[in-house]
Amino acid sequence: MTMRSKLARLFTIKTRLEAFLVTYAIAVGAVERGLHYTQQYPGNGGIILAIACLGVPFIAGAKLLDSVRPAMATVAAGTARRAPPRRLSRSRPTDRRSVPGSALPSSRHKD
Predict the structure, then answer these.
(1) CA 20, 6, 19: angle at the middle one, nearest 5?
(2) Going by C-beta distance under 8 Å and a sequence separation of 6 or more, which residues neighbour residue 108?
(3) pTM of full prediction above 0.70
(4) Which among 8, 19, 75, 81 is most buried, taking Cβ atoms within 10 Å?
């Protein structure tokens, strides 16, 4: 294993706990940056920028948690066989011919 791959493994998020810890670190940084914005830009502008900073951990946390599978799902997926996906019916609709003696004349029978 090369040194580069060993170093890359350190920065790979593998578990949900690691995803939560990274999200927490992002949230702490966002709150700190939001405080700087409120001090640097007093009034409504600073508040709007602070709220924008606080939205980042929600988006990043959701992406991180979606990218990491739960531990039980990976174990179950490896041991259990998955059922094949259900196929949709690809048959054509039946031809609706009129029954002899019905009220509507058939398109095939011309009088």
Answers:
(1) 5
(2) 97
(3) no
(4) 19
> Would you call 53 exposed, middle or buried from its count of C-beta atoms within 10 A (0-12, 13-18, 19+)?
buried
Q: Which residues contact 34 (CB under 8 A, 6 or more apart)?
A: 49, 50, 51, 53, 54
Per-residue pLDDT tens over the stretch 40-81: 999 999 999 999 999 999 999 999 989 887 656 555 555 556
Tens digit of each residue's pLDDT (9 = 90 or more) over 11-39: 888 889 999 999 999 999 999 999 999 99
What is the residue extent of each domain of the chain? 13-71
Q: Which two tokens stand for residue 1?
A: 């294993």
How buried is residue 38: exposed, middle or buried, by Cβ count under 10 Å (0-12/13-18/19+)? middle
